[in-house]
Amino acid sequence: MKILTTGLSSFLGTKFINLFDDDCHFLNICRREFKDDAHRVSNIMFDDLEIEKKIQSFNPDIFINLASNSRSKSQSIDDLRSITDFNITMSTYLVDIAISCKVTKIINVSSNWAYLSNQFDPSFFNYYAFTKYALDKYIAHACSKSLTKGVSLVLYDNFDKYDPRNKIFNIIEKAVRNSERTNFSPGKQIINLTRMDDIALALKYITVLKSWEFDSFQYFQISGQEISILQLANFIQEIYNKKNDILNFGGFPYREGEIMQPKYFFDELPYIGNRKKDIFDLIKQELQKP
Fold first, then answer.
1. DSSP state for residue 254 in the 8-state scheme
2. For 146-193, how does the pLDDT look when each residue is reduced to its tens digit (9 = 90+)?
3. Do 141 and 259 lie in a common domain?
4. Same domain, 233 and 146
5. Is 15:196 a contact under the CB 8 Å cutoff?
6. Is the pTM value of this prediction over 0.90?
7. Residues 116-133: pLDDT tens digits?
8. Is 241 found in the same domain as 146?
9. Could you give the number of structural domains in the chain?
10. Do 24 and 1 form a contact (C-beta atoms < 8 A)?
11. How far apart are the C-alpha atoms of 137 and 261, rounded to whole Å?
């Protein structure tokens, strides 16, 4: 199997590729090369002038778009250009090349932030979320005009003890572990949590699934368990046996447009794994990683 990818050097990408054996080969389009001791991965820089020729020479079977440009503050014109350049311009360009190579599948990793209302009356959290929605729509249209089938995987919040992206799980875990007094919003917002290991397994499932039983394009959500930020903090403090006065909930207000409850509009990916097991047990298992 030959897979064209973006984002293999991301946290999810490194977990994903480790699920494959040496018979699978990857061509990774990147800004930062992915180092692979098993020699399964070749890299092409985004600015390579022969990118189309090299992809065609690789002749991929599948295209998986893991990468995206996300900025917490997309207020300046440079921020908006940067987000647009990759999430729309480069990504649609790669979709077109992949389809010209007659790939059988395109898998795009998307975000629930792009679907705060149903897809026919869209509502977005921010400009980044809009670009994720727009790319999904472009892939759906492109697949409808070809023999390629496409999937958008709509992700919610995720967690891993060693995630370097400073997610809410890691901010709380670090504060509790180090007994650092830390301010938070009131913490009553509900999030949907899935372990990164389980997301990687779900991504492998849809990648290797031989038959996609739909016409040209399908949305699937990968959801886990709902929990409030306050509950999450209490669980982590209980597991670490720490006092519950370390974290100052209400130290600052909710951010503008805060999502207080996740929305669900799509079919669940037909591979559950451990995602629906007891959330306390999953958090405990994650925190007890060596």
1. P
2. 999 999 999 999 999 999 988 999 999 999 999 999 999 999 999 999
3. no
4. no
5. yes
6. yes
7. 987 677 888 889 999 999
8. no
9. 2
10. yes
11. 24
